[in-house]
Amino acid sequence: MTDAVNGLRVTRAGPLALLQDAGRFGVRRLGVTQGGPLDLHGWAWANHLVGNAWGTPALEVTFGGLELVAERALVVAVAGADLSARLDGAPLAGWQSVSIEAGQRLAFDTPVNGLRAYLAVAGGFAASPVLGSVACVVREGLGGHDGQGHRLAEGDRLRVRAHHAPTGRGVARETPREAPAEAWIDYRQPAVLSLLPGAQVGEFSGESLYRAFNASWRVDDRADRMGVRLTGPPLHCRVTSMISEGIGLGAVQVPPDGQPIALLNDRQTIGGYPRLGALTPLACSRLAQCLPGQEVRLKAIATERALEAYRRFRSAFA
């Protein structure tokens, strides 16, 4: 990290702020999970707005409560949830790049719209990769700003890659970028989550399948980066025991109580509950912004349509 310099200092840590790149892949055979941003959509836009390439580390801020002081002039962007971000006490606009000067104070307060905000800095945050990624997984003690899977704590310093403004201009005088209106999401609205039916879907009763895709589900307060429990009508499956098999992102497992669990980035690598299917990556992103008690619905989607939607999303960041 010879090109890295001190960029931000943590003066108040908040409950959960983690450094995340695109995730850790090719290591699940070792029992190591993927990590990475729960809301891929918000993370990608934050990086894009400051000119970073796909995969550049950004900061995932959950619930707010984080306060940072700039140690040099920076270009930053906040996307994803509205956590009442402020710059020196004044509201900070989201979904656009903003220039800040050394000594200015950036703070995230409480959720207004959504749960997780993403802070990107031009050039990207710098950290040493572990197993090919800086994605922070607290449970496994891997990645993050210190390489040991720790959340940010008061006094921590975030290093950034040296950033060179175009045509020799100073970093604080770049032309701001703003995301198009269609990229913004009102996370307070009921979410419709696209789900690819899975291998065991035919083992659920007809009544359960009707309920799964026609009833409303509530996000339970038992939710974290590993997964989100949904509460609603119980689902019944004829399969009562299985040999554990690999678990992919978005897998919707149904344990014996009939209440589905959608597994996210920090999930376990294998599991033995029958699966209704798997949420698409963008459906996982949407679910990650839902607060406890919010209403969601499941919608079956064909593989071709899911791939088309994901490719269209990725093409914005090519």
UniProtKB/TrEMBL annotation:
Keywords carried by this UniProt record: ATP-binding, Hydrolase, Nucleotide-binding
SMART domains: AHS2
Annotated protein name in UniProt: Biotin-dependent carboxyltransferase family protein
Span of domain Carboxyltransferase: 29-317
UniProt-listed NCBIfam families: urea_amlyse_rel (TIGR00724)
Keyword Nucleotide-binding on entry: yes
Gene3D superfamilies: Cyclophilin-like (2.40.100.10)
